[in-house]
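Please decode residue identities from the backbone states below.
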């Protein structure tokens, strides 16, 4: 069994723990939170007795094999590096770090120390994502793709009321492209890797982060448009268009439903049944990496491309984080 500890006590941590336990390959052994009372309350849900509010103590716990990190984006680099330094493998929520330099340093450090660093890019490991990949040849020559993810943040009302929530604070390396746009960006990278060029636009809030934006990725002979927003909802599906047909994807981060529309013929739903907890598949993927000790795994390449593009997008829309000055 993989002895798992977690950093963070929010809903996404709970969802990952549930997914990991479903695989029957993990044992939850420790919980960390900056607030010891939150750690205690969270641990009680899973009958875990070991809790920490000190990262050094967690890093020194010899009964932990891997640490799952779901803290604010700006903390990912330092927390992941500390765990790697203490012989812990790391699963880290996306985005892996605040910028490309940090990501490169973290990947290089993990390789040197023969530890696994794994970005929780859940979409890549979904059965329906693999289905989409397998259907691309049926589309013929691809010319256009619209990848859409716009979700009104539950903290936006607080921001409008004059508060300063983490989700709209550049101190925490947040904003629409980092928190929402990362999903369609990674979707494109997972299918077509690095584009030949990139153009980004965005609208900035007074706090200094982007509220929403558009990204154009150009490949050799087709382009991908990304819509992302933290201040509006969208009900438009994503679409990949080819000369012989199109794929239509509902809620692309989870590939909830997939439809194939041939140029001549009826619309076909081709959705595969997936686990209701989409994080189940990334937990399985990491378990395989752990068992085989695959330090230099394929996910590292995707993480580096993603980080490079996120850094370039922020440069183009003039969103800067304190981490960029480190």
């Amino acid at each position: 069994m993989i002895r798992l500890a977690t950093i963070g006590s929010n809903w996404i941590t709970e969802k990952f723990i549930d997914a990991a336990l479903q695989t029957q390959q993990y044992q939850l052994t420790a919980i960390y939170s900056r607030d010891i009372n939150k750690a205690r309350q969270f641990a009680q849900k899973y009958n875990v007795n070991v809790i920490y509010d000190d990262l050094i103590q967690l890093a020194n716990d010899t009964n932990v094999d891997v640490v799952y990190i779901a803290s604010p984006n700006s903390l990912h680099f330092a927390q992941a590096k500390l765990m790697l330094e203490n012989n812990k493998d790391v699963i880290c929520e996306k985005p892996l770090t605040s910028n490309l330099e940090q990501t490169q340093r973290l990947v290089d450090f993990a390789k040197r120390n023969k530890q696994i660093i794994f970005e929780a890019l859940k979409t890549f490991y979904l059965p329906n994502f693999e289905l989409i990949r397998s259907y691309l040849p049926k589309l013929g020559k691809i010319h256009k793709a619209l990848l859409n993810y716009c979700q009104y943040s539950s903290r936006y009302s607080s921001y409008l009321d004059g508060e300063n929530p983490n989700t709209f604070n550049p101190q925490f390396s947040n904003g629409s492209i980092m928190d929402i746009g990362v999903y369609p960006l990674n979707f494109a990278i997972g299918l077509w890797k690095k584009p030949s060029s990139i153009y980004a636009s965005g609208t900035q809030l007074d706090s200094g982060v982007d509220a929403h934006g558009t990204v154009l990725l150009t490949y050799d002979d087709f382009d991908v448009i990304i819509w992302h927003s933290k201040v509006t909802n969208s009900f438009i599906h994503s679409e990949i268009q080819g000369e012989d047909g199109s794929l239509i994807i509902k809620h692309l981060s989870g590939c909830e439903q997939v439809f194939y529309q041939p140029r001549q013929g009826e619309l076909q739903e081709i959705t595969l049944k997936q686990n209701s907890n989409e994080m189940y598949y990334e937990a399985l993927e990491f378990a395989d990496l752990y068992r085989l000790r695959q330090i230099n795994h394929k996910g590292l390449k995707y993480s580096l491309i993603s980080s490079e593009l996120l850094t370039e997008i922020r440069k183009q829309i003039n969103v800067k984080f304190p981490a960029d000055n480190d």
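Observation: The mean pLDDT is 97.
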